[in-house]
Amino acid sequence: MSKILVIAEHLGGKLNSSTARAVSAAAAVKAEAIDVLVLSDAPDAIAAEAAKIDGVSRVLTVARPENAHPLAAVLAPQIAKAAAGYSHVFVPSTTFGKDVAPRVAALLGVAQVSDVMSVEAAHTFKRPIYAGNAIITVEADANHPVVATIRSASWAAAGNGANSAPIEALTIDAALPTHTRFVELKQGSSDRPDLQSASKVVSGGRGVGSKENFDIIYKFADRIGAAVGASRAAVDAGYVPSEMQVGQTGKIIAPELYMAIGISGAIQHLTGIKDAGTIVAINKDGEAPIFEIADLGLVGDLFKLIPELEQAL
Amino acid sequence: MKILVGYKRVVDYNVRIQVKPDGTGVVTDGVKLSANPFDDIALEEALRLREKGVATEVIVVAIGPADLTAHLRNGLAMGANRAIHVVTAEAVQPLTAARVFLKLIEKEQPGLVILGKQAIDDDANQTGQMLAALWDRPQATFASQVEIADGKATVTREVDAGLEVIEAELPAVITTDLRLNEPRFIKLPDIMKAKAKPIDTIEFGSLGVEAHDHLKTTHYAAPAKRSKGVMVKDAAELVAALKQKGLL
């Protein structure tokens, strides 16, 4: 039987929803136990959140001052030790998980399955390659632990509230390196919903035209309670910061509603949104590739149409 | 200081990938092959560090079949001092690639290894992190800015929450993100000059690297297609349709 260790992702004392998505993938393995590991300088509040996720058996915490920031070189040796006795280690496939998980796999001397989209059997998974243009089925060796990153957009977050899993403090005897140090995190401060986990996302592209013009996107998003994203073209043109980029090289998201405004629909952008529930495209070019995958399309000038949309709400 | 740069050859990013009807792979016959775009960025960054006087030598490394020579010549034409070709006919998974790099590190003693954050064929995003673990050295992944001074790298990383800055003592592994730099174009005279630059070939089997792959790919499939939706005539109709779906 499988025993799965899910590594919690958190920031600012709050659990990231990518963790509950990784728990969903663990549940799909039909494991006998799903434990969540929280590495932090102050894990208590994060662990309390994780304990409520449906399907979690236990929450394990490692409280060390070195864990104040998610440095892969510091976290990986602790995760590798904690992984003893588990058949699988699942980590969200976010920049956090992509950074730390391969380091864990190498310490354990095993391969990693990146971006798990579906669980076919305990050691058989589907994952995308070539920017999602092909889906492969991979089989991991059942004689070794499986280290995998879980593609957040493919998994709904496990439910929350009915569970109250026990929380246990772990002491891990691992020498931690000091050769890597956190300096700072520059975050755009925003009251808007988080782009990665929002149920509605409004994105703007090159068609928006300028940094100033992007205000119309922010205003409309605020009106409907949506997070704001952007195409790579809009980021490269300097309209918005890079953390807003949606697409293969940015964030891969799966909101219930995705509205692409002034985005033509380059393949690398479409790769980032194709798991969205409903895709709406607004573009002045009726031939734009975005309309090939949009559920609802509207051709016209976004500066005229957005005010009309606001009126019609 | 020497810099080792990973320089993988992949299907060109402009090629529309097609899965073979029998599910045994993707079509690669007659398809244009190029350097992995993230590796071009890695090489560009190494060359800039050499031009600034931080590095003295840039070595491009590729692992793969005998016909990789022309690909490595491109890296040399772009400006690398020399190339190492680890020859194997087999596809190499990230853990094996990391073990190969570790062997080359033992021999070359570089101050910095720069790799692309991922190759655009397998999209694994693993080799740099695995190498850093095996080497027991720092990793700075998804770099969008690199400063080298006083024996350490200060690296700005593109993370989901924004831009993270970390300090890593050298030697270290850096993996590149898209916005780190814009790679230079190769000029004709440089192609001529590259012909005189050395390419060391090393048989994979001679390195003593364990090549056991834990992952088997059993099937390839085309992704599920989204069906084309409907066009609405105006803003009011769009809002009505979204309200009907319970989305607004």
Summarize the structure.
Chain A has 313 residues and is α/β, with parallel strands linked by helices.
Descriptive labels:
heterodimer; A: alpha/beta; 18 strands; B: 248 residues; alpha/beta; 27% helix; 31% strand; globular
Helix content of chain B: 25-40%
Query: First CA to last CA of chain B: what distance?
Result: 58 Å
Low-confidence stretches of chain B: none
Structural class of chain A: alpha/beta
Proportion of residues in β-strands of chain B: 25-35%
Low-confidence stretches of chain A: none
- Work out the number of β strands of chain B: 13
**How is the biggest beta sheet of chain B arranged?**
9 strands, mixed
Strand order of the largest sheet of chain A: 7-11-6-1-4-5-12
* Shape estimate of chain A: globular
Mean pLDDT of chain B: 96
Return the string of H and E elements of chain B.
EEEHEHEHEHEEEEHEEEH
What's the rounded overall pLDDT mean of chain A? 95
Biggest sheet strand line-up of chain B: 9-8-7-10-6-1-4-5-11
Number of helices of chain B: 6
Approximate helicity band of chain A: 25-40%
Most extensive interface, residues per chain?
Answer: A-B, 83 and 79 residues
Summing up helix and strand content along with how strands pair, one would put the structural category of chain B as alpha/beta
Query: Taking Cα atoms only, what radius of gyration of chain B do you get, to the nearest Å?
Result: 21 Å
Count of helical segments of chain A?
9
What is the helix/strand order of chain A?
Answer: EEEHEHEHEHEEEEEEEEHEHEHEHEH
